[in-house]
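Q: I'm writing a short explainer about Cell surface protein for a general audience and would like to include a description of its predicted shape. Could you first generate the structure from this sequence?
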Amino acid sequence: MKKKEAIYEIILFSISLVLLLFSSAASAATAESGSPTVTETQITTNTSYQWDPAIYGNRIVWTDKRNGSCNIYMYDLSTKKETQISNYESGYEDTGNSAVYGDKIVWTHGYEEYWQIYMYDLSTSRETQITTNGRAYNPAIYGNKIVWLDDRDNDYKYDIYMYDLYTKKETQITSSGPADNPAIYGNRIVYADDREGNYDIYMYDISTKKETQITSSPDNQVSPAIYGNRILWKDDGGEDDGGEYHGIYMCDLSTNQKFKITSYGWDDPAIYGNRVVYTDNRNGNYDIYMSTISSEEPEPNLPVAAFSASLTYGKAPLKVKFTDTSTGTPTKWIWNFGDGSKSFHQNPTHKYSKAGVYTVSLTVKNAVGSNTVTKTEYIKVITKPVAAFSAKPTSGKAPMKVQFTDKSTGSPTKWKWDFGDGTKSFHQNPTHKYSKAGKYTVTLKVTNAVGINTATKSKYITVTSKPVAAFSASPTSGKSPLNVKFTDKSTGSPMKWKWDFGDGTKSFHQNPTHKYSKAGKYTVTLKVTNAVGINTATKSKYIIVKTSQAPTADVPTADFWGWPLSGNAPLKVTFTETSKGSPTSWKWDFGDGKYSTEKSPTHTYSAAGTYTVKLTATNAAGSSTKLKWKYIKVAK
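A: Of course. Here's the predicted structure. Afterward I'll give you a sentence or two in plain language.
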């Protein structure tokens, strides 16, 4: 099966039936009276086989078997230079089905019945494998989309798949099988399908996911190509016996009219603008030919989205009239108003009910493709403003320059700043210089069409001079250990603090708490720093710590109980310590040669017998022992 390129548009001839007959030897031919002039050029002259041509712009690609193996070649009409694209060494049908779009060439390559799709980028000289599973062939390309036939289930029910080079996403297009010869232009894919017992031409719209049957004939209709609104294909009717219907046909989707373009000779048609390339074996072997038609319809263009709005600012509810100003003759419109609602009218009116700043986008579509324009924060619907602001820096030495930034919501239109030093500003984001040290309260009043709001930040800006260290402590005397809370009383807005507590320890907190563990008289020093300078305050023998007498501890009174007290071996007994006098350590003797230092242990008696249990409890004051004679009885 052969690929029919994602290609292009034959010229609409006339309303009457047009038949262009080409002489087997002529390099130029003229159609019937009233038809366009067609000039034919032979592209290849090699004595081997050349077939499956495709064209885009000045580039023609085809499959060539001149060196005994199949490879992809390209001819540039502008430079008249021929280039070998692939370099495979063997296999008659291992390489073929080439297609071209811009700098990208795709083709099929594989061994036996295992074929894959490859792509070559002329701008980077890089080859990429597109497919990796199943049997894939007959690729076509347009823009960032590649389509191909795929028999990954090995059931000979070939379906069409599409791969997006940008999103890396693969999509199955058909599932009826078997399809053949896909071609793509814009959002349209054309292909042959024999679901009715013979091949007809079908078209699938990617944007609407709708399939349309183009032909309905008792004869096979194959090898479709597409350019804009024009679909080109080959009618195989009566090919073997000279049937009158055999030849190349075209359908214009805009008028729904079908025309016969050629009779015998042409095969594998592909089209771009007014250039048609095809295979012809008139000289006994297959060569590539190109016919140029004298009249050319301009290439359809993608639409370019654009719009305007009657209002972009106002208070809620705000009614806005949107006007489509797109070019490229779009046929569909999708508006997104930024508040969760959409419209499919060309020039809709929309009401914004809530305050906010809304981003609006418009997507327009035509037969070639789609385009989107987005206007960020385009519509501003306001309510009463809420004042808010920030400043940088908020502290420093005089003279200090501060940048104020409006953070208000509700789209205010007027601003009034009071900097706290007797000066004001009416700019949105003013810069102000504080000349004297001090702490300044700043106020911002904002206004819009709905109302007024004010924000005040008390003592927000601190302008410093050299600091003066000062501090207090509480308590300043007591028994050890003594916890003392120190409080910074310095002036001049220090930014750093260094305390020396007189016992070898330091702190860098503003208001630290410190524990004195030993008796003594301690001198305390505080050093404070700001952007202007440093100052130190020292209080000699400021903290007096006296010795504390530890309370006399009582000797503990050991006691305990256990459960169960009797049972068959092995017997698991839990002992619970109930001593008085706060013991800090324990020693258990279970009477069977085993010991424990846990407070309340669990012990297992393995052998039958009667056991005496002893607990010794100890603290700093001393120890005592509790003995329970024949306390545990274990039977066999």
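A: For your explainer, you could say: The chain has no helices and 57 strands.
Q: Perfect, that's easy to follow.
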